[in-house]
Specification:
single chain; 197 residues; Immunoglobulin-like; 2 domains; 4-stranded antiparallel β-sheet; 18 strands
């Protein structure tokens, strides 16, 4: 069977834990906020994704058909009022050794942001809500990240020290609701669809 891979990210501060069904099958139970699953295999084409509050299958919070292509990977981001689907790494086999980095802004009501490293170098600038940057090749490094309000010196968040390894692909997700809380930041490796299965 020709397959695709999807993983689920709980990106909603408002709705508690989720049970997630794909094509009427329970595939993830009790998913908490900020959790991201491993990739699961789906047939290429149209697939139904339904989200319920944990233990309450009477009414779906979200229900959406998503279309996925063979040998591609996707992240399904569960937002308060929608399901937001992004395609993960599908980089040229002739690319440099990387690492590669991408920035996805899911901070509700948040300002446009820059992602900078320990030395103050800017990885990405002026990324707005629901913005998905392209992947960018960076040097292997051990660093922490800061989120800065674009056009200012205001820092919203400092991450712990993180190692960006050669030949790896990463996404930095920013989650939460602004200005009521400190943003949540996830730095996760993406699967390269060239080595999907």
């Amino acid at each position: 069977m020709t397959a695709a891979g999807i993983r689920i990210l709980h990106a909603s501060t408002e709705l508690g834990e989720f049970d997630v069904y794909v094509n009427d099958n329970l595939c993830i139970k009790t998913l908490p906020f900020t959790a991201i699953t491993q990739y699961i295999q789906l047939p290429a084409g149209d697939n139904w994704v339904e989200v319920f509050r944990t233990g309450d299958p009477s009414k779906a919070i979200h229900r959406r058909m998503i279309s996925v292509r063979a040998n591609r990977c996707y992240t399904v981001c569960l937002q308060p009022k929608k399901i937001f689907v992004v395609e993960d790494s599908h980089l040229s086999q002739n690319r440099s050794s990387g690492p590669y980095l991408r920035f996805i802004h899911l901070l509700q009501s948040g300002p446009n942001m820059d992602l900078i490293n320990l030395s103050g170098s800017c990885f990405f600038s002026n990324n707005g809500y629901m913005g998905v940057s392209p992947y960018r090749a960076v040097s292997p490094q051990t660093t922490n990240f800061s989120l800065r309000v674009s056009g200012t010196r205001k820092i919203l968040f400092h991450s712990p020290i993180y190692r960006l390894e050669p030949s790896r692909v990463y996404t930095v997700y920013v989650l939460g609701v602004s200005p009521n809380a400190v943003p949540y930041v996830l730095i996760v490796p993406d699967r390269d669809s060239h080595i999907l299965y």
